Each structure stands twice: as structure tokens, then as C-alpha cells.
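Figure 6 in text form: structure in, sequence out.
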């Protein structure tokens, strides 16, 4: 990729997208050819991102506001979730917001932005500091993936929002905030100090 300081990744079903904190850019790449398809200027110091099925939700350095962008880079909306966020993820009409202030994932109805639940995880990850998160609907043993320094955790939850650890493993990410995404088959992460994104097996046989 053209820039260091990746602070978020998201998969839109066709392309892998990422944000550069240092260059204020939204980047689209073809995952098959590694061709850079777009480099789009966005707001200053972006951090954390997810894809809501149509548009991208991207955070900013103060961790107070979230911006919504279309695939062409047009800013569509801005909102405040009401807490200092870290990683964000989207799935099943819900916005999942990781908050390192209380080591919980706060779950919001995306349409109303009402908080509907929290998911505790600190004890499951041994107190590891978690930043970026991802939601994968087809991973029935655990739909949430949590990125820590040099480690990733798969977390499941039930309809009562009780959580469990499905699996965990080491990987070569250099910062917990460097982004995490899933392309339908494999996990990806960015890097703070390299112009590389990495793809890893998730250890799961995907069914599509």
C-alpha cells in the first residue's frame, strides 16, 4: 500500500479498504492483484473504520465523532455515539463499539443509535489491551474478532450477550489499532510502521 500508519480496514464484498492516519487517506485495493484503485482525501487523522453494507463509518483522533463516507469518498453524515470509542464493527443492523475505558464492546441499534447491550471480554483475553474489532456473520462459534498487540482473539456471544473465547492466536501486527477485516475467507490487518497489509488464515472452513 502507498502509506504507513494504517488505522483501520474494511471489506465491502469486492475490495479491501483502509485508512492512513498520517496521510488522511481512504484507500481501496484489489485484493487479487494488489492494484491501488482509489486514494481519497478524507478528514484529518482518521482512526477505526467499518462497512455498514453500503457506506463506510470512519472515526477520528478525538474518538468522539464518527463520519459516514460513500465509496467515492463523499462525506454523507456525522454522528456522536456518546462514548470514547476505539475499534468499531458492523453486523446484523448493529454497530459494535469497543471502549477501552471499560474494556467492553457497546452494542448500538444502528438505525436509532440506542445502546442495546454490552459485551464483556477483558477476562477472556487475559487483560490484553484491545483496540480494533471485526464482526463476521458466518463465524457461528464467535462472530467478533479482537485485535491486540501481536495477538488476535475470536469471541462469541449469545442472545443474552454472554460471551466466550472461541480461539486466539499470535500474528505479526505491530499495533492493536492497525486495523482488522475479514474478506469472507481470511483475516487481514494493517501495520503502523510498514506500507504493508497482511492476510492470515482464520483457521475456519468458510461456508458460502
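Output sequence:
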Amino acid at each position: 500500500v502507498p502509506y504507513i500508519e494504517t488505522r483501520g480496514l474494511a471489506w465491502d464484498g469486492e475490495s479491501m479498504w483502509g485508512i492512513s492516519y498520517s496521510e488522511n487517506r481512504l484507500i481501496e485495493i484489489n485484493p487479487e492483484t494488489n492494484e491501488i484503485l482509489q486514494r481519497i482525501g478524507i478528514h484529518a487523522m482518521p482512526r477505526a473504520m467499518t462497512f455498514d453494507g453500503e457506506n463506510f463509518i470512519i472515526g477520528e483522533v478525538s474518538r468522539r465523532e464518527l463520519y459516514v463516507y460513500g465509496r467515492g469518498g463523499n462525506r454523507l453524515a456525522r454522528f456522536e455515539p456518546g462514548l470514547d470509542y476505539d475499534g468499531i464493527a458492523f453486523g446484523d443492523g448493529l454497530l459494535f463499539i469497543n471502549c477501552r475505558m471499560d474494556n467492553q464492546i457497546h452494542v448500538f441499534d444502528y438505525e436509532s443509535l440506542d445502546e442495546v447491550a454490552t459485551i464483556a471480554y477483558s477476562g477472556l483475553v487475559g487483560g490484553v489491551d484491545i483496540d480494533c474489532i471485526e464482526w463476521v456473520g458466518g463465524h457461528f462459534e464467535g462472530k467478533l474478532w479482537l485485535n491486540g498487540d501481536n495477538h488476535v482473539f475470536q469471541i462469541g456471544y449469545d442472545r443474552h450477550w454472554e460471551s466466550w473465547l472461541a480461539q486466539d492466536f499470535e500474528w505479526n501486527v505491530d499495533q492493536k489499532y492497525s486495523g482488522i477485516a475479514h474478506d469472507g475467507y481470511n483475516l487481514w490487518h494493517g501495520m503502523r510502521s510498514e506500507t504493508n497489509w497482511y492476510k492470515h488464515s482464520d483457521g475456519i472452513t468458510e461456508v458460502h
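Caption detail: The radius of gyration is 15 Å.
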